[in-house]
Write a structure and sequence with these properties.
The chain is an alpha/beta fold. It is 31% helix and 34% strand. Helix 1 runs parallel beside helix 2.
């Protein structure tokens, strides 16, 4: 098991959260708690850079949906950047590739 780490970088368009490790049942509350403390303004874009995400289960996907709700409630956008292939497959299977804005590389998080 790899512990979840979240690094934040603020950009002109909004915060970028680099999420690394395992986003699972035990770790999903860490991301949700971080999002609860994250101020977002209307018009900003929250970017979740998932380039170093090693594992994501259904609890992790629920946390990503909570991030989307947090952004929408603030009038902000959300982008998932550099989604790993295994997670992209799951997102596509359940139709969430149509719900999230997806960017191919972590360079989209700049």
């Amino acid at each position: 098991m790899n512990p979840l780490t979240i690094r934040q970088r603020d950009t002109a368009t909004g915060p970028v959260l680099h999420v690394a490790g395992d986003l699972d049942f035990d770790q999903a509350p860490v991301l949700r708690g971080r999002l609860d403390q994250l101020p977002l303004a209307a018009g900003q874009c929250l970017v979740l850079d998932l380039s170093d995400l090693e594992f994501c289960d259904s609890s992790g996907i629920t946390a990503l949906l909570a991030a989307r709700q947090h952004a929408l409630a603030a009038g902000a956008d959300i982008v998932l950047a550099a989604v790993p292939a295994n997670l992209m497959r799951v997102l596509t299977l359940v139709g969430l590739d149509q719900v999230f804005t997806l960017r191919p590389g972590s360079s989209a998080a700049s």
